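Suppose a colleague, Dr. K., hands you the sequence of a protein chain of 226 amino acids and asks what its three-dimensional shape might be. Before reaching for any lab equipment, you can write down a predicted structure in token form. Begin with the sequence itself:
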Amino acid sequence: MQNESITKEVLHFLKKLEKNNTREWFTENKKTFKRHETAVKAFYNHVLEQLNTHDEIEKLKMFRIYRDVRFSHDKTPYKTHFAGSFSRSGARLRGGYYLRIKPGESFVATGFWDPGKEDLLRLRKELELDASDFRKVIEDKKFKKIWGELQGDQVKTAPKGFDKEHENIDLIKKKQFIFVRNFTDDEVLGDDFGKKIGASFKAIRPYFDLMSDILTTNLNGESILD
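The predicted structure, expressed as tokens, is then:
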């Protein structure tokens, strides 16, 4: 079915856009873009359906192809990829999913890209107290086979108020808590690409379940939700 795969034509169009990233070329080829955009949105909705079989997704957000160039050195007007995010429902379900389609650089990502000040402090306090459950989840062999190592920006030494010699400082230093899985173009074009994404997102659930539990309780394990 069309909505269950990404076609060669989609990747070919994105390659051409990268070589011809001008308003004139895009205007001439806008009908073609809209056709591919519709097909890609259908694929993202297919991924959404899979997610909702094991999670509760509040919304799918497809990002626009137009770039905001006001404060960028790169003045090319269009992105050369398709991208979208899937937001989990309610205050008790934390974390998010992301999917990008770009020739040679397609990937899925999950986790916490920009945790707020309070959430970040709560996570660091938890890791300062005890990181054993956290490490057990992210170091599980099956988990690591799919998602690899924890990624994300971090401070250089230690956040203010934390001991730089703490045994869990490698985790406490994190400002982001994300996982990324890359896909080759052959994988993107495969009939089972949607299934691979679905399996990857399902595999992240132990991590999301733990993080949601941390971020909805205090250090005593008491719920902070109304």
